[in-house]
Amino acid sequence: MFKKDSSEYVPYFVALAIILAMSSLFMPFFLLPLLQDGLFHSPDYWFFASPTSGYFITGGLFLYAGAVAGVMAYVQYNVEGKKVQKTIGVLAALLPVLIVGYLTVHQYYYFNNQGIYTSDFLSVEETAHPWESVSEAVYHMYNDNGTMRVKSLELAYEDGSSLSFEYNHDISSNRVAIQRILQHYGVELERIRKTE
To answer: Is 121 helix (H, G, I), strand (E, B) or coil?
Structure first.
């Protein structure tokens, strides 16, 4: 049996590079929620979300993996070398995808009856922000051609910290529950107009 020439793999790597690059446009919106739902699903929360940055990072990981596949195509075609060395090179190049991907999946926030829970990008530990510790709640508004719209929800806490959330579909859908639980703890939800 004849040994395969390594350059025969070049079209596969080129195709993989193109597929990964194209996937970076839509796969983050499918893959990230799917992974997070599988890992963190609970009937306890009102909603579970990843910050917008998580989707951009995931898209960047697909582009990076596509670039690695493109470099592999070049290496297979132009560089002589042992298969083991090339394999180790690919695995080493893909290591950042695994590390950053893990951190991105563990970057989230969710709301439930007890409070808001967050996990930042560089921390895989969850931080609890109980509703009873909220000292001030504000909807930041902006003028959209004569119509006042909500831009973000900001919650200030007794310890001086604060959380800010873009007013997205999840916050909008749960605005009544948020207002109700804040009122339960004696916090009025204010509206502040931005002068932008």
So the answer is: coil
Q: 68: Cβ–Cβ under 8 A, 6 or more apart, which residues?
A: 90, 93, 94, 97
Overall size of the chain counted in residues: 196
Q: Could you tell me the domains of the chain?
A: 6-109 (no CATH), 126-193 (3.30.720)
Residue-by-residue pLDDT tens, the chain, 196 positions = 444 556 677 888 899 999 999 999 999 999 999 999 999 888 889 999 999 999 999 999 999 999 998 988 888 777 776 777 777 888 888 899 999 999 999 999 999 999 999 999 888 789 999 999 999 999 998 888 888 888 999 999 999 999 999 999 999 999 999 999 999 999 998 887 664 5
Return the axis-axis angle of helices 10-23 and 52-78, rounded to nearest 10°. 170
Kindly tell me the burial class for residue 108, based on how many C-beta atoms sit within 10 Å of its own C-beta (0-12, 13-18, 19 or more).
buried
**Contact yes or no for 132/185 (Cβ under 8 A):** yes
